[in-house]
């Protein structure tokens, strides 16, 4: 019997002796210039994508991460998005959710071409929107790609891995400043911001750095069973639009319209839109 | 190096090949007539209480479970509670949170006396309120204890283990009917109701059975990193008082008063009071 265990460790991780262990039916590995890709076929979570030993996404619970990194910001925008930039997210799940908002164009900037090719081949239910004609795939370093861009995007989404290796620069104030410039006047930035339970210092640093750049900064939370501790966060940085002051009735109508054309969402709804922003006390307690 | 792994299995568990593995510094075991008690000293979670192989509580994250099983119902009551009944919860954490509301009397009905004695000795930060003079310890079967009682309690809290063995009867309509009768006219019932992700059918059954008995039934959710999937639920059954219609300003004042006398809460606050009731779509999706 084959078991895969992700032992939580590495920079920024508060847990030192904890892991999630999962029974595996089949395993496929490949090495790219950037990382080791592991595809596991599991009993409980379906196919599971693991990069450098860290679970990235699984067929069973990916809908939570991908819906929650996309819909709070996109529904806060309150209008049809013209141009959306996704940094990271090579599996395509984030783009799949963005497409439901019917944008004119989505640019996906992924550093590792092989992740995209791998996801297209092995994870079609997640990568399905990558072939959409409105999606441009750019194989580049997202940190470099955004430099010098001004007033271009309605939404920028950072769907990155932990702050180790190439993703480290996506957690820094200088990057957030460039993202701010690349956004339109009512633009919204959103990034995954690690586990407030298992990576508390990293999470708080993201929020703090974003507060130096954006006037409205809103962390929010979702249950992601295959990520460390199961408690995950995302953080919105916004110029003028506040997710908390979205009109509830209008939101209800917009969600209903999206579901009519794109199918039922599985996690996000208008209750979750507000409820996810409720902050448990311990996260920002003084040390 | 010693590691403890809880493999998720047993009746009602949807996961079949998943576990949480935790590094252990020291272990202490004992057997009672009802179950096997294991006390682990861990690097990441401090002391950890395990009953029959299932993690019950840890020093590091117990505050989430215990605050969340108590405060939503107690703050919904909106007045000083006279008499509170806790079924299960032999570690004392639930009673500790109830005591913060300054009740006249708390009855703890725990089937296994040795769990209480063990917690008093080994987990003082959790069991600390069990010696309070307003607390009566009753070593009995909670299912039997409640039969025939009428109009006695302001609040009944079911802090039980999974629906295997002695706890099974605490998941059934007949028990909820007896609890309804034992409550006063404005009384509130609350039970832990398993993981909506990992034990979806059991969770939904609790909600459904409660709906047969109580006119107001409200499931709510919290992050509990050491429970299966990290996504946990509680469900309130209420006669007339609805947690969702509690006046936000009054609630804010009441929480502030409680914290002045009992110390800062670590998870619950007035945002969480409403936000925790936001229901992700997938939980009650038709199959």
UniProtKB/TrEMBL annotation, chains A, B:
Metabolic or biological pathway: Amine and polyamine biosynthesis; spermidine biosynthesis; spermidine from putrescine: step 1/1
Residues that, per the record, bind S-methyl-5'-thioadenosine: 35, 110, 141-142, 166
Binding site for spermidine: 66, 91, 159-162
Residue span, PABS domain: 1-239
Reaction catalysis annotation: S-adenosyl 3-(methylsulfanyl)propylamine + putrescine = S-methyl-5'-thioadenosine + spermidine + H(+)
Superkingdom classification of source: Bacteria
A Pfam family annotated for this UniProt entry: Spermine_synt_N
Gene Ontology biological-process annotations: spermidine biosynthetic process
Enzyme Commission code: 2.5.1.16
EC class: transferase
Molecular functions per Gene Ontology: spermidine synthase activity
Database matches in Gene3D superfamilies: Spermidine synthase, tetramerisation domain, Vaccinia Virus protein VP39
Keyword line: Polyamine biosynthesis, Spermidine biosynthesis, Transferase
InterPro entries for this protein: PABS (IPR030374), PABS_CS (IPR030373), SAM-dependent_MTases_sf (IPR029063), Spermi_synthase (IPR001045), Spermidine_synt_N (IPR035246), Spermidine_synt_N_sf (IPR037163)
Active site per the UniProt annotation: 159 (proton acceptor)
SUPFAM superfamilies: S-adenosyl-L-methionine-dependent methyltransferases
NCBIfam families cross-referenced by the UniProt entry: MFS_SpdSyn, PRK00811.1, speE
UniProt record similarity statement: Belongs to the spermidine/spermine synthase family.
Purpose: Catalyzes the irreversible transfer of a propylamine group from the amino donor S-adenosylmethioninamine (decarboxy-AdoMet) to putrescine (1,4-diaminobutane) to yield spermidine.
Subunit and partners: Homodimer or homotetramer.
Name by which UniProt lists this protein: Polyamine aminopropyltransferase
Organism: Desulfurobacterium thermolithotrophum (strain DSM 11699 / BSA)
The gene coding this protein: speE
């Amino acid at each position: 019997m084959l078991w895969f265990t992700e032992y939580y460790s590495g920079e920024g991780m508060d847990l030192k002796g904890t892991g999630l262990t999962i029974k595996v039916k089949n395993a496929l590995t490949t090495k790219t210039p950037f990382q080791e890709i592991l595809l596991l076929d599991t009993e409980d979570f379906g196919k599971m994508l693991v990069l450098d030993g860290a679970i990235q996404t699984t067929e069973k619970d990916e809908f939570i991460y991908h819906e929650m990194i996309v819909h709070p910001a996109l529904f806060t925008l309150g209008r049809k998005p013209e141009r959306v930039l996704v940094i990271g997210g090579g599996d395509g799940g984030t783009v799949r959710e963005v497409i439901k908002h019917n944008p004119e164009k989505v640019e996906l900037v992924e550093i590792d071409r092989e992740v995209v090719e791998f996801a297209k081949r092995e994870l079609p239910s997640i990568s399905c929107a990558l072939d959409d004609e409105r999606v441009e795939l750019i194989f580049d370093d997202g940190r470099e790609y955004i430099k010098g861009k001004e007033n271009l995007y309605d939404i920028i989404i950072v769907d990155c891995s932990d702050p180790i290796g190439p993703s480290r620069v996506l957690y820094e104030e200088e990057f957030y400043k460039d993202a701010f410039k690349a956004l339109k006047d009512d633009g919204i930035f959103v990034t995954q911001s690690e586990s407030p339970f298992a990576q508390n210092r990293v999470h708080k640093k993201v929020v703090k750095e974003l507060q130096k750049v954006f006037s409205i900064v809103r962390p929010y939370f979702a249950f992601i069973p295959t990520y460390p501790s199961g408690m995950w966060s995302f953080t919105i940085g916004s110029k003028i639009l506040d997710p908390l002051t979205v009109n509830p009735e209008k939101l209800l109508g917009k969600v209903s319209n999206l579901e009519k054309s794109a199918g039922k969402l599985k996690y996000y709804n208008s209750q979750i839109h507000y409820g996810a922003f409720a902050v448990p006390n311990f996260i920002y307690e003084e040390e």
